[in-house]
């Protein structure tokens, strides 16, 4: 399987983004390749396109499956397994966010909650706890907001995101009205 320069550029960029999403470069490249192919790809197809070993492909597929980002398909009279993205781009973004929350935010919230239960022993710990409390509240707010967003349809979510700065301007206007009273 030969990649055009545009497709190769996208796939390589997905590799770089993969490391920011929480998995390694090769796994990111594999997912990028799967996203832009209309037909499901076999492990051999992926291996040849990215010039990586079949073992590397196998480990990458397992990683993508643990993130629930790929699905396995079979073709009639063909023993090979074929892989494709598990859902739409919106669903992929939701899963990546959800997995990152589970792997990064939830353990942090757990640690913060445990630390906030203890009574501070001195002024230094009291200050530390106040900072941890702010971090906890911020993470809780962001997590709750993100959970609400995940329940929205892609159309509603897209509309909300397009509102962007407009929402901020409405809030600023509301604050000005309240402060005038």
From TrEMBL:
Domain HTH marR-type: 29-80
Keyword vocabulary terms for this entry: DNA-binding, Transcription, Transcription regulation
Keyword Transcription attributed: yes
InterPro entries for the chain: ArsR-like_HTH, HTH-GbsR_regulator, HTH_MarR-typ, MJ1563, WH-like_DNA-bd_sf, WH_DNA-bd_sf
Keyword Transcription tagged: yes
Family indicated by similarity: Belongs to the GbsR family.
Name of protein: HTH-type transcriptional regulator
């Amino acid at each position: 399987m030969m990649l055009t320069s545009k497709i190769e550029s996208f796939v390589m960029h997905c590799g770089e983004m993969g490391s920011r999403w929480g998995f390694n470069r090769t796994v990111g490249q594999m997912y990028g390749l799967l996203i832009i192919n209309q037909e499901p790809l076999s492990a051999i197809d992926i291996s040849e396109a990215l010039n990586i070993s079949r073992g590397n492909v196998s480990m990458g597929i397992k990683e993508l499956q643990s993130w629930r980002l790929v699905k396995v398909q079979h073709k009639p009279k063909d023993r090979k397994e074929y892989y494709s993205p598990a859902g739409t781009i919106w669903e992929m973004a939701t899963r990546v966010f959800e997995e990152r929350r589970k792997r990064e935010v939830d353990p942090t919230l757990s640690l913060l909650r445990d630390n906030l239960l203890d009574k501070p022993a001195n002024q230094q710990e009291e200050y530390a706890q106040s900072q941890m409390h702010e971090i906890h509240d911020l993470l809780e707010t962001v997590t709750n907001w993100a959970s609400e967003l995940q329940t929205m349809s892609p159309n509603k979510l897209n509309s909300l995101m397009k509102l962007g700065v407009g929402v901020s301007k409405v809030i600023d206007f509301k604050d000005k009205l309240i402060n005038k009273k």
